Amino acid sequence: MIIVTGASRGLGRALSERLTAKGFEVLGLARNASETPFECLSCDVSSYESVKDVVKQVKARRVEVTGLVNAAGIAQMNLVIAMTSESVRRIIETNLLGTINCCQLVAPLMLRQKSGCIINFSTIAVPLSLKGESVYIASKAGVEGFTRSFAREMSDFGIRVNCLAPGPIDTDLIRGVTAKQIKEIVSRQVIQKQFGADSVSDLTELLFDPRSYSISGQVLHVGGI
User: Fold this and answer.
1) For residues 29 and 106, what is the distance between their CA atoms, to the nearest angstrom?
2) Known catalytic residue at 136
3) Which of 15, 85, 167, 217 has the fewest CB atoms inside 10 Å of its own CB, making it the most exposed?
């Protein structure tokens, strides 16, 4: 079983559908679970207790958990001085704390078979230091640092941990980004092209392939930086 957060829409849903089509058993998690071609449970990743409850349900099924994809995330494009403290808190708690909660509680399910693959999500906005995304960038920079260190912690248990950092993908997350801004971001990539969810799904599938056994602790930028 592969557990995917943020699975009801956007990138999380696209990844879940691809993995399901490839024959993986997928358990999606979403704050507001909706009808999907894979099983999806309600879960607020920013809440330790909410994630703990889902993990308890998974344990009861006695299934082998081989992967975790932390695709849940929110963003608000705005100057820090114009943001409310509530918005700042929600972004940090969902993006960073949510990733940590899921890794902390799901990784132990992989220890029995001494193998597993965890994929966290960052953004190209981190190395580009994009204006108006300071808090979002702070949350994702935290995810990158966590990924590198957590990969070392898990290496003795045969669990690989990596981070995918895409540029602007056409999902709800970038709804407030103008075409001009997207063009500017893409122009700073090595491959100057706006990639879709399929490209991210390709890399996700690659990292789950056993032949990627040597890749861990990496932040992979979709399109290059």
Assistant:
1) 12
2) yes
3) 85
Q: Where in the chain are the domains? A: 2-221
Taking a C-beta distance cutoff of 8 angstroms, is the pair 53, 45 a contact?
Answer: no
Cβ neighbors of 62 (< 8 A, separation 6 or more) are: none
What type of residue is 215?
Answer: I
| pLDDT digit string, tens, across residues 15-24 | 999 999 999 9
CA dist., res. 91 & res. 118, Å (int): 21
Q: How far apart are CA 207 and CA 220, in angstroms?
A: 11
The yes/no answer on whether domain 2-221 falls in CATH 3.40.50.720 is: yes
Give the closest residue to 73 by CA, choosing from 99, 107, 103: 99
Average pLDDT value over all residues in the chain: 93
Burial annotation 98-127 (CB, 10 A radius, 16+ → b, else e): bbbbbbebbbebbeeeebbbbbbbbbbbbb
Among residues 38, 121, 136, 208, the one annotated as catalytic is 136
Backbone angles phi, psi at 4, to 5 degrees: -125, 125
